[in-house]
Predict the structure.
Amino acid sequence: MKSGPWPYGRTAGDEVRQVSPDTHWIAYASDESGRSEIYVQPFPVPAGGGSKTSVSRDGGNQPRWRRDGKELFYLSFDGKLMAVDVTEGRVLKVGTPKSLFQAPATSIQNRTSMNGWAWDVTSDGQRFLLDAVKTSSESLTAVLNWTAESKH
């Protein structure tokens, strides 16, 4: 494998990608069909190409892997955070997407915040961080280096 960055694939669509924790698969959202959908395919692509597996059923964006690679999450177009069971191996097995909860409206509107991500998931897949900041006159205070203060 080459060192440094290299093009993974060239398609006609806009895509957002994330490599699986075991680095054998890549999940991505692609609008090559005219609507953004979630796909997974082998990584790196084998000689002769690798087939892609469709994950989403009704559109999706911003796929994220659970750290153990057994679940894939994505944001649906109707604003739900979706989860799909995944079994990795020589052949990838993908379960049926299930809705976890309705995401805040600002997460849906800000699909490109956080360098292309409007949300993230903890390594165990149990908690989610979503972009839910509304424009207002309220201030936000960030405390930096707070652990140093607690040592006194």
